[in-house]
Structures
1.
Amino acid sequence: MNTSTTTPSTVNGLDTESMRKKVAAIQADPALAMTRWNVTTRWMGGARSDTKVASCEIGGQRVTKDFTIRVDEPLELFGTNQFANPQEVLMAALNACLVYGYAANFALQGIALKELSIETRGDIDVRGFLGLDDSVKAGYEDLALTVHVKADATPAQIERVHDTVTRTSPNVFNLSQPIRLRSRLVTS
């Protein structure tokens, strides 16, 4: 009797065979692991801004993109409430990075996801942003995430994936570790 099992090539909507080939290629040539991300944001009046995503680089190859991320503020913060505000976009970016991490890690183990959602919340005292009180931080003290997972897996398997995802997520790293921010001002 043959007890070996084959892993489906598509799990959670991801081509696991291609993912494994890409991982092997990166292990053989670390230059393929290098990525560069960039955006350009323009003020659109009031509290509105539009961010253009035109390209990125993955493994030395330019990838053309054409996306616009529109951002606004609620009426209570003098915006027009047409779009998510910067804090909601920040949380969405964190959650989206984690969602992909869960989907990919479960897929590579052949585990089908049935449901996945992440709730994130945080509190900001706008006195810091407004410069009214130097003792008040301009941003979050912390963010609280609740991950809801339903998968064809044991609780131990889900916990291992959770630990891997939170340890390896670029956006968890970016939000939880000090990173150098270089700012250059150009006037005309």
Note: The longest helix spans residues 86-108.
2.
Amino acid sequence: MKTTWKMINSEKGTTHRDMSVTLDDKIITNRQKIADLFNNYFLSIADPIDGDKNKDEHSSMINPINYLF
């Protein structure tokens, strides 16, 4: 798949572009740092959503551990 995209980009005349993100008036170009920033952002918005979902779904359910006692 990677080779296919290299061929496509070569035919289109596009090459690898540097990526940068601006955060708090700082330009970040390190790809690992950018990936970590996006990951942290999406985790931060997913945790509250997932927490609310689990609370609503399981609030009326009986704990299966109770059956063991």
Note: The mean pLDDT is 77.
3.
Amino acid sequence: MTTTKKILIALTSHDTLGTTGKKTGAYLSELTHAHAVFADAAFDVDFVSVQGGHVPLDGVDRGDPINAAFLDNASLVAALETTKKPSDLRAADFDAIYYAGGHGTMWDFPHDKALAAVATAIYERGGVVGAVCHGPSGLLPIRLSNGEPLVKGKNVAAFTNDEEAAVGLTGVVPFLLVDELVALGAHHQPAPRWAKHVVVSDRLVTGQNPASAKGVAEAMRDILTR
């Protein structure tokens, strides 16, 4: 008997872009494109955010048909208003966790030890951890039971320093994501700016930018169904 896989999508609760006065949040296509892959695979999907409840969104482009389909689904929109907190979850209920990006993640994902503990438990029971763009900021606090960072010795992709400079936010974000991943022992594997790029390293799947979200979810799906 095939058991339905259960996927947890992790989202930021942070809506302020530093001191710029601009709003940010979870980048919509990084959520929707991954969700579409998981839904097509008939996986059960649940949402979690750092603070629970409402998830602020960035990059809300209805010209993207996958975004539009998600936004037109009343139950999915409602789910983003009532997300669970990490403390509401049992890691044993999930086969994988996917960290969607968006600049907001840079302010809250790295400090959420409860969410990191959920990811550790999922990974150590044979599950998959995925992250895209700025989502790998959620990997920074993950420590395995041996005390080592999850990313140590792993090949990873993430929003590059070059891409951060290109969007003019190098001096706005609290740190440069690639630098912090490398400091923990990760092996960063960059692609050209804005290219679709997915890196699979054991059961850790990471993508470089919004264009990579679908590919990260597909790689996660393939690991979970092989």
Note: Strands lie at 6-11, 26-27, 44-49, 57-58, 96-99, 128-132, 155-156, 187-188, 198-201, 204-207.
4.
Amino acid sequence: MKHIATVTMILIFGVVGIYADPGPINMTLSGTAARSTISLQDSPAGEYHLDGNGTLGPFTFRVVSKNMASPQMSTTCLGPTKVYFSIVAGAGVFRSQDGDLLKLSLTEGGDCIDFAAGAALCTRVFQIIGGTGRLTNASGTVTLTMTVVPVLADGSPTNPVFFAVTGDVRGNVSGVAADQGSQDGQ
């Protein structure tokens, strides 16, 4: 009887270990942004191609999102040289170094463009909607925060078309299977 109880406990703790919850995640990233060939709500979207490292290991992250056509009021983006655009649609996909995918649906976000600084502070909040491999049972919410700076303008400095991006992803993710290849990021 003791042997059966011991084996049962080993199996229970073994299964719990397979689906370790990393809890809070922190990942840093960088990359580029430009207008996408993808249309959302019948107009072009913005597209981000990002690479980084962090709690879930090395990854690439592709994001497509669309903002409202006209500026909105914001309590967090104030000043005479700042303009705020709400994000109305989008999605993202993390691809880990081992090929596992984490699929995300955009729930909210915004871009605070500071013309005097020549940069924008952009946020995207995502709900995890699925995954593959060790990320199959993942759930949670993550926030992508980016500083976006124009690199190339088309015709005039007031029409930037290509951007450099730096930022981070923070949030809480549960249901991620243990992976021997993951590294802790900074």
Note: The chain has one domain: 22-174.
